[in-house]
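INTERNAL AUDIT FORM
Audit reference: QA-55
Scope: verify that the stored structure record matches its stored sequence.
Auditor: D.O.
Record contents follow.
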Amino acid sequence: MGRQSALGGAGNASQDFYRDRWKKSDFGANAIQENLEFVRDRRWVVSECLRRLCSTSEAMAALLAYGLAETEKFRDQAGGGDDERRFFLLGRLRLLQFKDRLDTYLGIHMGRYDPQKYMIFRSTSLHRLASTFAEHGKTGALELLMKRHGYALAPHVLSILDGIPETLSPHTYEQLLPRLSPPQVLLPRRGQDWIESEAVVRLADAGVSGEVDLHECTEFMVNLSRGLRWPAAEEITSWYLQRARRIDQLSGQLENSLFLLDAGIQKGVSGLNDLWKDVADLCRVSFSNAECKEDDASLALAAWEALDAFDKFKMMLRGVTEDNVVDRLMEVAVPFVQGLAEQGETQQSFLVRYLKEVASANLQLCAVVLEDSCKPPYKGVLFKDEAEIIAAGLDCIYSSSQTDEWELMASILSRLPWEDDKQQQKASDTYGERGLRRGFVNALRYPNRTLTDTSMDAPFNVSPTKRYPAISGELERRLRTAEGHIQAGKILFRYQLPTKIGFLASSNEDVKGTKQMLRILLSKFLRKHPGRSDGEWNALWRDLQVLQEKAFTFLEKDYLLSEFCRGLLKAGRFHLAKSYFKDPGVALLSEEKIESLVLQTSREFFYSANTLDSPDIDRAKDCLSLIPDSGSGIAERDIIVAVTERLPYLGVTMLPAQFRQIKDPMEVLKMAIESHKESHVPLEEVFEVARLLGYKDTSQMAFVEEALAREAAAHGDVAVAQELCLSLARKDHGKVWDLCAAIGRGPDAERLDIKSRKELISFSLRHCDGESIGELLSAWKEFDLVDEYLPVTLLEVSDSASTEGSASTEGSEKEEVGAPDDFLQDDVTTPKDDEPLTELDETPTNISSLEPTESKLAVAARRSRDIVAQEFADGEVTEADLASVEDAWHCFSRLAENTSTKKQAAALKLLLEEWETVFETKEDNEDDLQRAEDKGGEDGWGDGWQDFDVAETVEAPKLQSLWKIACQKLIQYRGLEAALSVLDRWSTSSSALLNKDEAEEFVHCAAQENPLLGLKFALLLPYESLRSTYMDRVEAELQSQGAVLDKAAMVLLLSARLLPTIASASNLTGLFSALSKGFAELLHKSQAGILLPEDSLGAPSLNVIVPYFVSEMTRGRHYGAAASLVLQLMRVPQSFATWNISHFALKRYLEAQQQQQRQKRESFDPERLRESSLFYLCETISRMVASFDVVVTEALMTLAKDMK
């Protein structure tokens, strides 16, 4: 009543006064009583209770309580209408919400109060507050908030918990972790207010709740509006799984994931066991690897889950050593496998697979595991039974990739649960194993004991059937095979031939490789100690037999014996090899096999000899003595005699390797024949060599006689050629018909009687080609008429005169007998039947000139073949290739295309030098061709032998192109000296070998390594711009690196007469300095008594080069440098080098050198230059010598002019 009377008596001014004073107060209890009590607008009062913040928690509670008291009057009455009532009702709900938030705030902050923080706390949604507490790791505040506002936060519990940092241990918020069933939520202790009713809920549902959120205001209202909404079981399970994975992914703290899952399982959450097992396994792996100092930081839970079971098993054993592998298996791997076995997921032993993979690099680790598993009594922890242990051991052995672990393999095999032959033999003799006497003693001591009785304590009696269970036949076969392979591997390792056991197991699939390995073994055995004893070789044979029995069963024993005997023969143990050939205790080799072995070995000895008196030749003979009755052996001995004895006697000395490269023995015989160009060929010796080389029958010897005949004819020994041709004609050797025709019609054939002539022509008619039939038939008619009409006595006289060699008698004989043409023209008329033959007589073929030309080509072709055969594997030069210029061009182009080495390029140069002896220029042969045509007569035959030297003409541009190709190949493959020699050769020609563009390209290619090389090439070419370019480059090289000029460059610069230009050029000071230094060094060597190799060979050094230098310097009026060199040569001190003395010394020196060279000019031999180091500049040096007198004369004239 007092407040109402106060309110009733207060005017508007006082109302404003109380409001203003209220706004300026601390909103405490006194301010409430002194101000709010007197304000008539109670709605404003409630609004102030909702809006104002007090400085203390007590004042704030009093203000909220005042507001609640103010709204209490609306419990039973309508008040100021519907809107007015709704305002106060909703205001009461908000006041209750603020009061509950105040209690929660004070509980969280343990009674501490801050107005601003409280303002934020009560105005922020509970979900946001809880998320903020979770993100900051304030689990205590979050727990209190969720207890007091469980209904409001229940739908968001999982998202709120997701905000907790992953680095925070789940121990700290274990109470917050959700269960499958909703927790028991505690409502506020104040009790449910009258405003917290379903009527208000309906009012809010009708949309008139205003700013009040029923899901946030009070726990009672949330309970009334929607009740307790807890996440479903699937959501909770999924949250635990995702949360555990995220903890590992973001923090790497796997133990937090494990505790989270463990807590979830304890709270009854299903579906977490699989992930918990993976996390637990990964924890064990991480901790175990951490002890082994392995870096597994990159191994995350997601990666672990992605691994299959076997990969997880391998990861558990990562980093193990021989010391801890068994412990790791027992602690980590075995529980893991057992867990899989309980789930029915394992189909085969992971340990066996793991050991097979590890065995390749670490067989010792496998040995430790197998040894531990084989220790009695067998427990079956790591392997299910003994058979699996044996199979695993074998797999490990054969998986090893090492070549030096044979003892370890043997140790593994011996520890496997099986009895090998030695163990069985040891255990088979119960009583007699320690001697007969011990056996009787035991028999008397234990009369009732049987062979298989193991009930008594007898350490020496161990029954294999009791100790180990029976194994399958296949497994036992594998064990026996492995035992043999290990034994074979030990043998190979002992002979320093490391081999993998996998190769031994699969050697039957690589028979060729196995045979190659045995050959290497024998080769190493032979080379390491050449003088091995018979005992060592016998031991090797026994080891080879073991290899064949244990590993290489697919090899025949006779093959093994043949390879062993081959090694004996190569070692020179011929007596021991002979004993193995005949020993009945070994597999006998067939006679054919023995002969093949001996022949092959003897050939290796013979063809490896580097001299004709090499001991290898004697070894070859000793080897052939093992088969004295063999025809092939006799043939090989004949070849050795021919090469080492007979051919050197004939003047042909070649090494066996060179002889081997000659495929046709006829080439050797031709070499023997050609070696006697200046003397008579010893026919019998040649025939003997032919017999030794395999020419046995008459037809084969005919080819030898043919070669002798052609060579004799080519070198003018006509008598021998005639005799051989008659012999070949009687043997009907048709290939020599052309030579027989030429000899039968040649002038020297007059030494033959008419019958011999007719015999040769008749033989030629039988074998000639169609184009020559007419001419040969005409010749035969001539000799037939002579034989028919001339008196026999006249022929005898003529024969006698020819034999004595009288020129006058020979001339009279020709007059009496007459020319064959006279007989045909005067006395004989050609019948009509012979008219076709007359047409054939007009053929241009000249048989008499055919043989010598063909012989010359044959010589060139043979020499070309020798050159090509040494460097070109598939190259070939035949007579047809040299028949014409076009054929030679195509042959040379083909060889040039296949050129790929320096030696092959040099061979091209040699070929051209050889071919120049065959092809001559057209100008040189015109007179010879005309002379041959004049002597040929009307029938085209002529006198025959005068036409032998006619060569085919060739145009210079064609040869020039061939030389250009050769030069290009020499430069391409760095045969630079040979290329320089080609350019030096062409420098004397009127036409240049290369045009300017080609010259620039070639010189650029040659100068890739050194500009000095380019300068040498440029100086041999007639292009001034090219010379200038490379002189500048050499100058730059000299300025930057201080290089020196060699003697070749100095000679070329002198011959090009560029020295005055170089000395005067300001941009070539380095080049001039290097030249001066080079000549001074030559002079110094001369004064010191050091002669250059060229001086002893006749090549110019001090006698030409130094005077040439002085002359050129004098001609260029560089008297100081020239006089300095001359005074140094005369040993005149520099202090005396006045103008007059220098000029006088120069004059006297040049005059003396000119006179000296004029006296020695006739003795200069250019051929001796080819033996010097400047062999490739023969033409250049020869020109210098030839022009020396002119150069000195010019220098003296210049000096005399200046002295005036």
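Auditor finding: record pair retrieved intact. The two ends are 159 Å apart (CA to CA).
Action required: none
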